[in-house]
Amino acid sequence: MVTSLKRDVYKSFYTKSGPIVQYMLDKLSVGPGMRVLEPCGGDGVFVDALIGKHADLQIDVYEANPQAIRTLQNKFANDERVTIFHEDTLTNRELAFYAGLGGIYDRVIANPPYGAWQDYEKRAELKKIYDLMYVKETYALFLYRCLQLIKNDGMLVFIIPDTYLNLHRHTKLRRYILSNARIVEIALFPSSFFPGVNFGYSNLSILTLQKKSRAEDCLNNSVRIVIGLGSVEDLVGPYTRQIFSVVNQRDIYNSKDHALFLSTDHNINRLINESKSYTGDIAACVTGFYSGNDRRYLRAGSSEAKNSRKYRPVDMNRVCFDPSSSENILNGIESLEHFIPILKGGNTRYYKPDIWYMDWGTEAVSNYKEDRKARFQNADYYFKKGIGVPMVSSAQITAALIENKLFDQSIVGIFPFDTQLTHYLLAFFNSPTCNKLIRTINPSANNSANYIKKIPFIRPSDDVVCRIDNLVARIVDNLKQGKTANKEIELKIYKYIKDIYGF
Ligand SMILES: C[S@@+](CC[C@H](N)C(=O)[O-])C[C@H]1O[C@@H](n2cnc3c(N)ncnc32)[C@H](O)[C@@H]1O
User: Fold this and answer.
1) Which of 15, 58, 288, 447 is the residue whose CA sits 20 to 30 A from 34?
2) What is the per-residue pLDDT for 15?
3) Measured in angstroms, how far is the CA atom of residue 226 from the centroid of ligand 1?
4) What is the second-level CATH architecture of the domain 18-262?
5) Which residue's CA is the closest to the ligand 1 atom numbered 7?
C-alpha cells in the first residue's frame, strides 16, 4: 500500500487531449492479447483508449492517489481485463521484483507526474532504490523503472518534459536508455499543447522506446525527431513534413554527456561535440557570492534596483570605489568607506552601472566566512576583471563587464586565463551566435556554470580580437557615460562573431 506520499502533490494533469492520446496509442503499437502497464492511472484515460482498441488486453493500472483509485474502481470494477493496484509505482516491491527479472510487460504507456514535491523521507527512500538516478524529479524514475519492466522488444510511450534530453542531472538516465532501448521517435512541442499546462522551463515530449537487450542493436538505431508542430492536431496529422531529423543513436551516445543537441543547424551540433576548445578550457567559470543575509548587508544605490525598497539605501560617503587597490581585500576593509559595488542578476548587456553595494567591513566579511548560509565562494575572482552572465536569462543570453566589484551567486563569472580576451568574450556572450549555442546545449533558461563551460570557443586572429576589443570598448565607454550602446557597432560585432563561428 501507499505509505509516504503524505502531502505530496500528485501532479494529476490528466491527458484530456484527443490528439495526444491518439498519437501515443499509435506509437504504442499494441497488439491482441498483450500485457500492458499504466503506472500512473489517473482517471483511466489511457485504459479507456486501450480497451477501445483491442478487446483482449490484460492491463495493470497503478495509482497512488486514493481519490483517483475510487474513480478507477468505479469505472473498471466489472472489467476483468483491468487490474487496479492502489500502490506507489516507484516503491512497490512486486514491480521492483519484476524489473529485476528483466520485465514482464509487452507495453507501457504513461503520463507520469512531473515537478511533484517529494518530502525528504520519500527522497531518501527513492535514493536507496534508485541510487544512480536524480530522485528529485520523479518522471525520470518512472521512465527508468518502466523501461526495466518491459520485456525485450516491448514498447514504451511516455509524455514527459524534454529536460531528460540534455540536463546534466539526467546523464545516467540517458546512458541507460541509449544502451537499453531503441529510441523510435521523440516528438517535441510546447507544453501549452497539453490542456491546462504551460510551464516555462521546458517543452513537452512524447518519447517512444523499444527495449533491446543488446546494446549494439540500440546504438545502430536511427532516432526520428519530430518538431515544428504548429498545433497539437499536427501530432496526428500528416506530420511527415515536420520530421525534423533522423539522428544516429550512436552519435547521441558518443556526444558530450550523452546529450541530444537539437539545433536545426547541423554545424552547431557538430561544433558542440567536436570543437577543439571550450569556454571551460580558456576561462574560469564560477558562481559568485552570497552574504547569507542580504537584508542586513546589502544596500541599494538606486531606486531602479529591483525590489530596492526592501533594502536600506547606501550612503555614498561610505562607498569604496576601488576595492582591488585595498590590501588584504578578502579580509574586509577597516575604514568607514567599506561598501563595495556588487553585480547582481538581471539582463543587461556590456555594462551595468553600480546600483547595489555590499557591506565589506572586516566584521561583515568574517561573518560571511563563518555563516553556513553565506557563500564566500570562488573568492580568488572577487574584484578581478571578467564578465558576468546571469544564471537565468530571458530569450537572449546577456553578459556585463565585471570590473573592480563583487558578483553575486545569481551570476556566473567568466574570467579568461588570457586577459586580452575579456572584451572578445563580452562581445561573444552578448551575440546571437552564443545564444544559439547555449540554447542548443541547454534549451531551458538556465545558464549555470557547467553549461557555460561547454560552449565551444574559437579564437580568431589577434587582429580580429583587437578590432572587436576596440568596438566593445566604445560601447562600454558610451554606457559608462550614460549614453545608449551604439546599435551599428553592436551589429558590426555580431557580424564578426558570425563570421568566426559560421552561424
Ligand atoms: C499526470 S497524472 C496522469 C494520469 C493519467 N495517466 C492521464 O494521463 O490522464 C499522474 C498520475 O499519477 C499519479 N501518481 C503520482 N505519483 C504516483 C506514484 N508514485 N505511484 C503511482 N501513481 C502516482 C497521480 O495521482 C496522477 O493520477
Assistant:
1) 15
2) 85
3) 26
4) 3-Layer(aba) Sandwich (3.40)
5) 14
